[in-house]
Each structure stands twice: as C-alpha cells, then as structure tokens.
What does this fold into?
Amino acid sequence: TEFVNVIGAGLAGSEAAWQIAEAGVPVRLYEMRPEKSTEAHHTSDFAELVCSNSLRGNSLANAVGVLKEEMRRLNSVIITSADETAVPAGGALAVDRDSFSATVTKKVKMHPNVTVISEEITEIPSGITVIATGPLTSSKLAEAIKTFNGSDGFYFYDAAAPIIDKSTIDMEKVYLKSRYDKGEAAYLNCPMTKEEFDAFREALITAEVAPLKTFEKEKYFEGCMPIEVMAARGEKTMLFGPMKPVGLEDPKTGKRPYAVIQLRQDNAAASLYNIVGFQTHLKWGEQKRVFQMIPGLENAEFVRYGVMHRNSFMNSPELLRPTYQSVKRDDLFFAGQMTGVEGYVESAASGLLAGRNAARLALGQDLLTMPQETVIGSMAYYITHAEGKHFQPMNANFGLLPELPERIRDKKLRYQTLAERALDHLAQTEI
Ligand code: FAD
It folds into this structure.
C-alpha cells in the first residue's frame, strides 16, 4: 500500500496519523518541534494543549459532548487518551495536560505503522498527504499553502465577534430590519434607551479582558478594534460605529432608538447570529455577563465567544470538500484549526475524518462523507458550505445540525433528541 504523509503532530495530526495507522496504512508523521517551536507551544510532545486543560463539556446535553462520544465510537486516540488522563472537572472533560500529551505521543509513536520524522516541512509534498499544522503553521509552509490555494487562501485573523443561538433570543424585544429598509430585512435589531446604553458602556469599559500573549500585542486594525476599546475611546464612538441607530427606527413605535445593536445571520439555516462589529478581547465569562445586558439577549446562549488571537485558517467554503480533501488536489487533505474548525476536540475530529479518508484513498476505497446529523459531519458540512466572504472558525454546536422534523420547545429535550439522532446516524453509517 502507498504510505500517507501527515504534517504536524498536534491535536488533528496525531489523530489523523492514528486513524491511518489503525486502517493498516503506513504513515510518515512529520513534526517540527522541538527543533523549531510555535509562539504558543512549550514542549516536544504530540497534541500539546496550548492553553486550557479542558476539552469542554462531556455530556450528551451539549454538542461537544456528543462529538466526543462519536469520536469514542470511532476509535479516537485523542478522546481515549483524554478519558485515561482525566482530572475532576464537573461536567467537563479536563485532563492532566502532561500525562495527556505523553499518552498520545506514546500510542502514536509506538504504533507499528507510524514512522515519526522530526523535521519542519516547507513545501506541500506530493503523494497522499494530510496537512495539519495548526493556527500557528510555520511561515514557509504558510506561504506555500497560500500560493497553492490562491491569494486569499490562508490568512490570519485576530478578531471575531460572538455568535448566538437564535432560539435563545427574546424575539419580543428585537425587530427584523435592514438599515433604511434597503434590500431584504436581514438584521435582528436590539434597541437601547440612553440609560441602557450608558450602563452597557460602563460595563464594557470596566469588564475584565483576557491577558494578551506577547505575539498578540499587535496594533489593532481600525476596522476590527475590540468593542471595549471603542467604548473607552469616548461616549459617542460606539454610537457612530456599530451601535449607530440611523435608519433603524423601531417598526412598533416608528421612533429611532438611542442606540441599536445589530445581529447578523451567520449560517445558511439562520439558526446562528453574530453581533455585528463586536469583536472583543473580554474574558468569556465577562462576555456573557456584559452582552446579556443587551435587550433581547438576557438569556442568550453563546455558541462561540469573541476571540482575538493569531489564527491562520483557510477559506474552506471555497477550498475544501466535506471529506477534508482540497478541491484542487484529490490526494491532499487539510485538518485541524487551519480548516476553520475551532477548538481542541473539533480539531481532533477533523483529523479523524481526514485521516480515515486519506487511508481509504490509499486502499482504493470510496471516501467517506459523514451525515450532517452527526456532529462530526455537521462540522465538515459547515466549513465547506458557510458563506465564504465572512467565514470564521466555528465550534461544535447544536445550531449546525439540521432541524428536527417537529419543533421541540423544551431545550433539554430538544438537545437530547438531537444527540440521540446523531448517534443513530453514526451507527447507521457504513464505515
Ligand atoms: P496544533 O495543535 O497547533 O498542531 C499543529 C502542529 O504542527 C504543531 O505540533 C506544530 O509544531 C506543527 N507544525 C507547524 N508547522 C509545521 C511545519 N511546517 N512542519 C512540521 N510541523 C509543523 N482551543 C481550545 O479548545 N481551548 C483552548 O483553550 C484554546 N486555546 C488556544 C490558545 C491559542 C494561543 C491558540 C493559538 C489556539 C487555541 N485554541 C484553543 C484553538 C485550537 O483548539 C488549538 O490551536 C489546537 O491546538 C488546534 O489543533 P491543530 O491540530 O489544528 O493544531
């Protein structure tokens, strides 16, 4: 059998290499650490967790928990190693980070089908290849990927606004309208009085921000200044910026509110909305506290918080297929955060699917597209079908799954039904 190259032994690359090896296909796994490191890694172990030691929720009541269960059933090395090295963390799956990475390293390295090569790759290799070099891909390879994909194929972002589950927005308080009624009414508008605005601005200015890493202390682009920095600049800055009320009169009263916050549809199914212009560096708990002050968002659920850090990712809606294959080269796969999935578990899940497909290609088998009803399949679908222009990395969440045939109002029951459906579809998939 032809061997497969895997570039990068992070969360996605380790999982991909494991899956390929388990399928009986030889793997050459290239990792540049420790000779060369990234701005966030500190060790030479595979699957190093660069920040939190939590892999987030572990129950079937949340999408990332369902994703973990799907991965367990698909023989994931990342999730089984996490289970083996778990530390108490309530409903979350948190790990002893050193034992976790050591366990993954050992299992992958010891696999008879895996050859580890300590080397920085600077060009895209020929032959069946999975590239999983992460959000901090070394610069030469980043250039090569950019050239391969075309000019806007691989870029950095350092700002993204929070995303909200639409079913948790209080529709009594918000109204659908586009500014000056131009085009189809596309935005949900949250109106504020002067008193509400003043209290909100005060909360923004005094909220706690996440500490900046040295490599993040870059000048903010004017176009994506964090909302809390804008709030601190002056009383009127937000009112002339993202909270501008002109042309957004409330249809119920005909009056122009003092300030308006707009929510923009974020996915084709219109189940997710982002807060327009609200990229932020606030701590996640603070984002929840402050943004729930916005009228209509009192009980909003955030499927992704705003983030600001270096993160290279591709414009996958135009460049990838749901098999994680490049649209330009059948034998080239991408996996991990660089494909626009967000998070440790999501990165590993994409590596799992890319790895299985690379192995199937080597074995002359048909490639696998996972059903959209599964969480692993919904992620692959999202990153390859989202709107290309505003594409931003995405966490696993129930809003990405196709709607149920009947609307279930009770959230707990709805999520339980979605979780059961996901695992049913997984069981029915021929793998
Ligand atoms: P990585 O885990 O980074 O793996 C990529 C691997 O490729 C690395 O081992 C790297 O050394 C190697 N590599 C890079 N270039 C080359 C090359 N040219 N040749 C050979 N090897 C190469 N997610 C969470 O869920 N929770 C968090 O708390 C969290 N915090 C984050 C903090 C920061 C600062 C960043 C940047 C991201 C964070 N993420 C977090 C997002 C994401 O989950 C992680 O970045 C995750 O590690 C992504 O997995 P990956 O496999 O895509 O990349």
Notes: The CA atoms of residues 209 and 282 lie 4 Å apart. Residues 7-13, 30-33, 38, 40-41, 50-52, 120-121, 132-138, 141, 309, 311, 336-338, 343-344, 347 surround flavin-adenine dinucleotide (CB under 6 Å). The chain has twelve helices and 16 strands. The chain has a mean pLDDT of 92.
